[in-house]
Amino acid sequence: MRIDGILHNxxxxxxxxxKDESRFAQLSDGQAIPFExxxxxxxxxxxxxxxxxxxxxxxxxxxxxxxxxxFNNFQVYFFKFSQDLQWALTKAADVLDRLHYFPVPKAxxxxxATDSLLVNRPVYYxxxxxxxxxFLGQHGKVRLRAVDERGxxxxxxxxxxxxxxxxxxxxxxxxxxxxxxxxxxxxxx
Length: 189
Prior knowledge:
By secondary structure, the chain is of the alpha+beta class. Helix content is 16%, strand content 42%.
């Protein structure tokens, strides 16, 4: 049975079904009850900590932390922060808003959805044809593979510092990067 959610208070698993324009939660015991809940249960987890850095002459302790975002207990995003917790709260709200309007509807609703809607999806990255090779929700990224046999060119400012232009065949890119265009047709290579 496909699982669409788990009831918080009873821990029962359910599947969403529609009958005559009404929605029901089909429980694991077969019972169908009216569904008026949220289709996607969102959870944001903040981890706040202090860390030592030796960047100053005598070292120092700085604030930091990380944020994990889950849809239906499936991690879809992650970021670290080195500012205060208020900054992380503001960024988490912005990220949630961007995830709600993610260009590939329902792609982040669980492992099956990401595997069928994101993995092997043709995209453009920095205007170059690419394919999503893997969803890395625990890092807030997707792994992209270049379609061009040369790969992706190194960012120009990095190449200038290194003194040469290099190419990468695979890159891990932020899921919400504006450099990814999600609507490339597979025959547009």
